[in-house]
Amino acid sequence: MAWTYKQIVLAVMMVVTGSINTISTKWADRQDAVGRDGINHSFDHPFLQAVGMFLGEFSCLIAFQIIKLYHRVRHPEQEQNMGNQGFNPLIFLPPAICDMCGTSLMYIGLNLTYASSFQMLRGAVIIFTALLSVAFLGSTIRKLMWAGIFTVLLGLAMVGLSDILFGDQSAQTDTNGIIAGDLLIIMAQIIVAVQMVYEEKFVTRYSIPAMQAVGWEGFFGFTVLGLLNIVFFYIDAGAFSKLPTQKLEDPIDAFIQIGNSWIILLATVGNIVSIAFFNFAGISVTKELSATTRMVLDSVRTLFIWLLTLFLGWQGFQVLQLIGFFILLTGMCLYNNIIIVPIVQHIRERRAQYRNLQDVGGENDRLINDQSTTGGSGFSDPAST
Prior knowledge:
The protein is mainly α.
């Protein structure tokens, strides 16, 4: 069935806003600006960037409440279709904490490695989610899913190998920093997998609207991590911090740098706005099309980010990374039983139909030949005997 205009717009919105989210965050990381001590230094504030991401997610809850209020005033009969509202919002606190830890680690890793590697390595979440689902949800992994997991592992190895072999000094860090960033991103996927398993076990039973669920997680993440940013200001991280003050996080310095650089301001706003529209588009794609389509579009986003970083000159072309991307994509397709397996099954069905037609055609030819030798009927001609 052909896509409608609305579905095409949602798909494009998901790919574009998702790409902008990663690119804008990396763009801010690459900038220098004068901080609160009057020193020009790099914008190294991953925890504050994570707060901005949660602010974008929190905006989904605000939008949901506005829609709910609109239905209450204009269409009261439709308010009951807004999903289950009889739940305790605190059930979103644990996944929000997981999201907070995972996002912070990923942003630290993104500051050290390539934007394309960041997006590709996030595919490791498939492996950890599958293993945790077996352990805590009693799920079973089919042979095809195991094939997908091992293929994803191979793809991750290729991406990591490309960063080790071709990581260069021009990427604002050395090869060791790139490797550390890759490892942090993979570690973050373990936390993200825990979040997904928790949500499947405890949250999905309540049938809560997806936009509302994302919004509540954004609210708790924004609140908790926002308070932790104040605590981080008083923690001396020493050599682990790139900030002149060597603090774990310095929100004051971050806001002064944002005020002194329109590029950092634009990238920060882009991060906040894009994550809100990305979540909205992702939820809508799942609803209008399917979760499988959402996964495919997310893979397209990975390719788009890789091409864009090449165009911007943020990294050089790496054949191993390209190979790793296609292996990762193949593993995801095998795990989710999309594209590859359906195509193979379709080809097999067409071949079986073709063989059946040939068999039927051969049987008809045999019957015709038999009839021609017997005078056009299925019985022997008496005159010939």
